[in-house]
Each structure stands twice: as C-alpha cells, then as structure tokens.
Write a structure and sequence with these properties.
Among the domains are: about 165-205 and about 220-270; about 270-320; about 340-460; about 485-590, no CATH class. The chain has 23 helices and eight strands. It has helices at about 5-25, 35-45, 60-65, 80-85, 95-105, 110-150, 155-160, 165-185, 190-205, 215-225, 235-265, 270-280, 290-295, 305-320, 340-350, 350-370, 375-385, 385-405, 415-435, 440-460, 495-505, 520-525, 550-555, and strands at about 325-330, 330-335, 510-515, 530, 540-545, 555-560, 580, 585-590. α2 (about 35-45) packs across α5 (about 95-105), α8 runs antiparallel to α9 (about 190-205) and α8 (about 165-185) packs parallel to α10 (about 215-225).
C-alpha cells in the first residue's frame, strides 16, 4: 500500500472517530468527575490558585479550560466554597464549587460543558495520530492502519475522550514519554535527552498514576544498557552512562515542566492556606517521612510548587490504598477485588478484540516454540526491544492496578491500551508473514478482516451510548449494569434525556435519586423531589427515577466487614420500570 493511500485512510479513520466523539455528546449531560474538573481548570487559569482538586495534576484540566477564557463567565470568587477562610475544606467541597460555578453564578452550564469537552476530543485525535505515526515507524503501513482502526473504534476511548477527565490525557502522556525515552536509549544524544525530559515532565503533570513510568523506565534502561553495550564498554560503564543520562532527563522534566507549571498554579494560593490544606489532606497518609517533608515545604517560597506536587501524589496513593465504595458482580465493597480489572477488561472490550488477541498470542507463542523458545526469546529482546518494553509496561501497570483498591472503572487501564494494540497487531502481522502457503495466508487474512469488521460494527451500533458499552458476552450494553456501574456504565450522562422524558410526559413531580454531575434542582425546579432511599420507610407515590449506580448499590449484597447501609432499594424489585432513560436510569410509576 502506498504512503499516500495510507495517510488518506488514516485521516478518514481519525475523522470518523472525531465525528463519533463529537456527535455522541450532544445529549450527554455532565458526568460526576467533570463537576470538579471543569471549575478546577478554570480556577487555575484565572485565579492562579490550586486549592481545588489537588489530587489530580493540572495540565489536562488547564487544557479543557482554555476555551472558557474567551467566554463571559462569572467565577464565584467571593463564595465560601472558594474562599474557605475558616478551616481546611473537606474533599467534597470541590463539587459544591462546581455547582456554584455552573448553576448558580448566572452562567450557561451547557455552553461551559460543550467548550470544556472540545479540547479533550482534540487530545483524543492527537493520541490517535501519534499512535499511527509510531506504529508506522515500527511496522509499516498495514500495521499502522490496523492499530489506528483498533484505536479509532474503541468504545472506551471514544467514551472517555469526550469528557473533561484525565484518563485519555494520561494515555497520551504514557505513549509520548515512552516513545521519546526509547529514542533516547537508542541514541542518547543531547536533543533526545532533552525531549525525553520534556515529555517525561508532561506525563508527570497529566496524572499521578504515571509515576509508574519511573520503575518502568528504570527497568528498560538497565536492560538496554546491558544488552546493547558497546564492545569497548564494561557493563558498569554502560550502566553509569545511562543512569547519569536518566537522572538528567528527570531533572529536565522537573525544572522545565513540573516546577514552572506548579509555580504558576500556586502563585495566588496563600502559603498559610496551602500549609493548612496540606496538613488536612495528608492526615491519614502512612508515608510519614514523605508526608512530613511535604508539609514542611508547603509554605516555603521556592519549594511550594514541589510541595503541592508531592501532596497530590500522596493523596492519589492514599486514595488507591483506601479504595472507594463500588458495586461489582452483585456485591458492594469499599476495599476492592484483585480480579476486578481483569474481569472488567474482558467485559468492556469488544469480544472481537479478545479473539484477535488470542490469535496473536497463540500464534506468536507457536512460532517461538517452533524456533526453540530460549534462543528466540533472547533474539526477540535484542531484535524487538521496543515490543519487549511494552510487555514490561503492561506488567507494571496491570500489577499496580490489581494491587490497588480503587476499582471504579476500566478508564484507569486506558494508558495500557495503545501498547496492547501495538502488540496484538504486530503479532498478527508476524503470523501472516510466517504462514507457509498463499492459501493459508488468505484464510488467515479473511478471518482477521472479519474480526476487524465485527470490532468496528460493535462500536458503531452502540452510538451514542459509549460510556455504557459492554460486549456481547453479557448481552451487550443493555445488561452491563448487572455487572458494574460507576464510570463503567452510569456516570450521570443521561440526565438531559431524563429532562426530555419529563417534558414529553408532562410530569409535574418527580422523585429522583440521581448519580452524576448535574444539578437536578436547577433544571427541574419545583418538579424535583430528592429521593432519599436510606430514609424512605415506604415507596413514594407517582413518578420515580433512579440512576442505576444508586439502584445497584442499594440492592447489592455487602461483602464481609462492609459497614455501610445496604439493601435500601430492594423494595423496588416489586415494581417494573415503565421507561429506561438512555441506559443508565430506570423510571417507575408507583400507584
């Protein structure tokens, strides 16, 4: 295939992805985390104050907020949710500020939401373009188009690439920083060291989970220094050279990216407030020496940016350790399950892709066995060091995810997806090139093409409900809520569709238990009656709407030692929903 045709097809794939992402959010309401991320980003750029949402780095939120700078918006800078004069604010106050900014400050919330999401879609397309570029360098035109097709029709990437969140941005950071780190390893020139440092720094200010890049880069750097050392160098000399360069890369990332960005963001953050808030936020943290150092730095002029950075890392680590209350497979827990991510990965990824993965894995394993495993593995590491690096990254990231207790969505695995796509398509290409006869190759190509068509079709048919996507093994999007909710299924995205239902049915009173970012009272006014299931002694009469995240949490079976109220929605089993809003809400009419 010619380069010109390859670029044309790549452009068409990215255009299709852009259109699917853009038009699928037309009726998607504000999701849960966006309520905090949007005002946080706007406050960073306009107030230069990082008091809101410090548990996530600022860069993705900054990018989302850039279009808002051109809108005539009112920021509630005098409201108590922002001033926070009397004491350290609780964690949830960021959501109160979000409601104040979007719904109670004479702003148009839909306009804010639309323009905040648009840059996220462009980040999604940028990731796709860079992934295509890298794949083409690694394996040529066909491989790059295969990888881009998997990316462009990924329900998970489309779902989260339209939202103001850090998950797609962190995948971009992982890809960019790994690409430039491998370039540095192969050619440790000054320019490659510089770009490795810049992209490493960018990755560090996109999401704290990318702290895992440090052990990943450490392992592949040591491996490269040992495997590819020059004949004139000892192992120790080669290691010293690469370790020194790696330290220099980290220093570039710190001084050119992390420190300046955080300095801008704490410029107007009062030092005494930063110190007060840091002490409060890190109170439960068990890494005492690092915690004490971070607190000590919090009001020191030159060190405040680093204190804010380490504060975020420690907050993210303690949240991963402590977990989150979540529904999964009929149970509810605050501690998580080690098998959560493998099962969610199986259920939320198109079945066709799992079949492609199996063909790739088994085919590649067969070829390795055929060529004598030990020799082939050594040759593979030396001849395909980039692919070997991908395996190391996947092992580190998946191990960390499974060891943590924060089981709130497949979106946390998104940084691994690009590397999985590259490995799977590379395996398929290797198998095709190794088949002995033309007829076998044609049969294999036909099967692979059919699986790609199935994969693409499974993405197209779920439009525009990408957030609720589940694969065919559980009956598709319709049944996914039985297995997991939260950002896997119900993040509050169908609220505008509920408003349409209320209007079409002339509903004057609605008992509502909503999970998401929207403010029901703002939209429904006197029609809205907040449903408090834990306090309701008998079913309310009339129209009742319940988000499936709330419903499943209220009917789930509690795991041992779970100490929160359970079973408060089991009375709803006696009633049949009269309507379903999108896929994430049930509506009842109770007489």
């Amino acid at each position: 295939m010619s380069d010109r045709i390859t670029y044309l097809i790549a452009g068409i794939l990215l255009l299709i992805m852009f259109l699917m992402a853009f038009f699928s959010i037309a009726n998607d309401s504000l999701t849960f985390d966006e309520l905090a991320h949007i005002p946080a980003g706007y406050s960073y750029l306009t107030q230069k104050d990082y008091r809101i949402n410090p548990e996530h780095p600022p860069l993705a939120k900054d990018i989302a907020a850039v279009p808002l700078l051109f809108l005539p918006l009112n920021f509630p800078s005098e409201h108590p949710t922002w001033t926070q004069e009397n004491s350290a604010p609780p964690w949830w106050i960021q959501f109160d500020l979000g409601r104040e900014f979007l719904y109670r400050s004479d702003n148009n919330p839909k306009t804010i939401i639309f323009w905040s999401r648009l840059p996220m879609i462009f980040l999604l397309i940028l990731l796709g373009w860079f992934l295509f570029k890298w794949a083409r360098e690694l394996g040529g035109n066909y491989l790059s188009l295969g990888v881009l097709a998997l990316f462009s029709f990924s329900p998970t990437f489309i779902a989260h690439g339209r939202l103001v969140a850090t998950d797609v941005a962190v995948a971009l950071g992982a890809v960019l920083s790994t690409y430039f780190w491998l370039k540095f390893l192969k050619n440790p020139s000054k320019i490659n060291i510089f770009w490795a440092g810049i992209t490493f720094g960018v990755a560090m200010v996109l999401k704290f989970s990318l702290i895992l890049l440090i052990p990943f880069f450490g392992i592949i750097t040591i491996a490269y220094a040992l495997v590819f050392r020059k004949p004139t160098e000892t192992k120790l000399k080669s290691l010293k050279k690469y370790i020194f360069s790696s330290f220099l890369i980290g220093l570039i990332g710190l001084l050119f990216i992390i420190w300046p960005i955080y300095q801008f963001h704490v410029f107007n953050y009062p030092p005494d407030h930063q110190l007060r808030d840091t002490i409060a936020d890190l109170a439960p943290n068990q890494l005492t020496p690092v915690k004490n150092l971070t607190i000590w730095m919090a009001d020191k002029p030159f060190l405040r940016p680093l204190a804010q950075y380490f504060r975020g890392i420690l907050m993210a680590s303690q949240r991963t350790l402590f977990g989150n209350t979540v529904y999964f497979l009929g149970n509810i827990s605050a501690d998580g399950w080690w098998y959560y991510f493998p099962i969610i990965y199986f259920l939320k990824i198109p079945l066709a892709f799992h079949l492609l993965t199996i063909i790739s894995l088994f085919g590649t394993a067969f070829l390795l066995l055929k060529k004598k495993l030990q020799t082939s593995l050594k040759a593979f590491v030396k001849n395909h060091f980039t692919l070997f690096s991908f395996f190391i990254f996947l092992f580190i990231y998946w191990a960390a995810a499974m060891a943590g207790n924060l089981n709130i969505g497949i979106r946390h695995l998104l940084p691994t997806f690009p590397f999985i796509y590259l490995l799977v398509v590379f395996g398929l290409k290797t198998i095709l090139s190794s088949l002995p006869s033309f007829s076998l190759k044609n049969w294999a190509r036909g099967i692979i093409i059919l699986l790609f068509v199935w994969y693409i079709g499974s993405s197209l048919v779920v439009f525009p409900y990408y957030l609720s996507y589940f694969n065919e093994s559980v009956g598709g999007v319709k049944n996914g809520y039985k297995y997991a909710v939260d950002s896997n299924y119900d993040w509050g995205q169908d609220f505008y569709r509920l408003l349409d239902f209320v209007e079409k049915n002339n509903i004057t009173k609605l008992h509502l238990d909503y999970f998401g970012g929207e403010d029901p009272e703002y939209w429904l006014g006197e029609k809205y009656i907040k449903l408090e299931p834990r306090e309701t002694k008998e079913p309310p009469k009339g129209w009742v709407a319940v988000s499936l995240n709330q419903l499943q949490g209220g009917i789930a079976k509690a795991v041992p030692d779970f100490d929160q109220p359970t079973g408060y929605y089991r009375w709803l089993a006696e009633y049949t929903p009269v309507a379903r809003i999108g896929y994430s809400m049930f509506v009842y009419y109770i007489k």
